[in-house]
Structures are given as C-alpha cells and as structure tokens.
Amino acid sequence: MDHLDSFLRDTYMSGGMEELPSEVLKRIHCSDRGVETDKQTGLQLLRLIIRDHELFLSPLLLAVDRLLAEAILILWNNGGGSKEAFAKQTDADVIAILKSSQNPKVRAIIHTILYHPEQIHVHQATSEQGIRCGVRKVYQKSPIANGRALAETVEGKAILNRLEQLKKEYEVSIPL
C-alpha cells in the first residue's frame, strides 16, 4: 500500500496524472492476492509505476543522491559526526553540516549540488574515474485484473519491460 500511495501521489504531484488519485482508489481493492481492479485501471497503475520510476530513477537524480551520500561518507570517515547523530538531523541540518565541513571535498560536492548542478556529469560508460551509481532494482509487482496478474498479459509485459530498461549503471563526476 505504501508503494501504491507513492506511485499515485508522486505522479499526480509531478503532473504525470490528470485524474485525482482518490478516483483511481475507488476502482481498486485489496485482497490476500494483492491489489485487484479492472484491466483498464490495472494498466493505468502499471503506467503510473513506470512514470514514478522514470521520475525518481533519472540519471541526474541518481547522481545527486550518490554525490550527497559520498559527501556524507567522506565527512564520517574524517571524524565529522556519527551515523546516529545524522539520523536525527533534518535535511536542512545535514546540508548546513556539509556546507560548514572542514573538508574541502565535502564542501565542493555540496556546493556543486546546490549551486552548480550543471557541472554534474553523468555517463553510462564507466571509466572507473568517477563515482558509480545506478539502478539495480525496480518494483516488479503488478495489479490483478479478472483474477490474473497483469504482468502475465501482453499489455502488462510490454509496460513492465520498460521498467527493466531502467536498470543501468552510471558514473558521475564533478570538477573538484
């Protein structure tokens, strides 16, 4: 249900869905087999899953997320706080900590993310000179329509094949 909520909310709020999520929810129900609905709504849900994945698994968003993780790891490895302390921080607090770090590499990474994202370069070919990131896992469940998982239908397979195509490895680099 958490995934369903995010697929509906994310795609609606990003403009990828014209219908109100509450209207879609009226056409589905949950059973011990999973989310069940009519075929048209089930295919709509699969398309929402694709849109959500394309939005959040875009190479640039993956790169920014990986750069942020790299800055935090550098900070931790150089005595700049503990994982437990970071877990209690808000996003704004973490950004402030990174911006005020004594480590120039940490400051350069967060500065690039915040002020010069155009300098973030993402490549599919990996040269081993940048920071690796990628998509290894995607949401593979499908709704059930007329007692059958839509992933078993021609239409469902075609839509879900697009998910598999999102699994890629990238390399991110920034000027330091």
> Roughly what percent helix?
40-55%
Major sheet, described briefly?
Answer: 4 strands, mixed
The mean pLDDT is 91
User: What is the count of β-strands?
Assistant: 7
Radius of gyration: 20 Å
- The coarse overall form would be elongated
Helix and strand pattern: HHEEHHHHHEEEEHE
State the end-to-end CA separation: 42 Å
Total number of domains: 2
Task: List low-pLDDT spans.
Answer: none
Strand order of the largest sheet: 1-2-5-6
If you had to describe this structure to a student in words, what would you say it looks like?
This protein has 176 residues and is an alpha+beta fold. The protein has two domains: 83 residues, no CATH class; 61 residues, no CATH class. It is built from eight helices and seven strands; from the N terminus they run ααββαααααββββαβ. The strands form two sheets. It has a four-stranded mixed sheet. The protein starts with a helix and ends with a strand. The mean pLDDT is 91.
Write the layout of secondary structure elements.
Layout: H1 2-13, H2 21-25, E1 28-31, E2 34-37, H3 39-56, H4 59-77, H5 83-87, H6 91-99, H7 104-115, E3 121-123, E4 131-134, E5 144-145, E6 148-149, H8 154-165, E7 169-173
Parallel strand pairs: 2-5
Antiparallel strand pairs: 1-2, 3-7, 4-7, 5-6
Helix pairs in contact: 1-3, 3-8, 4-7
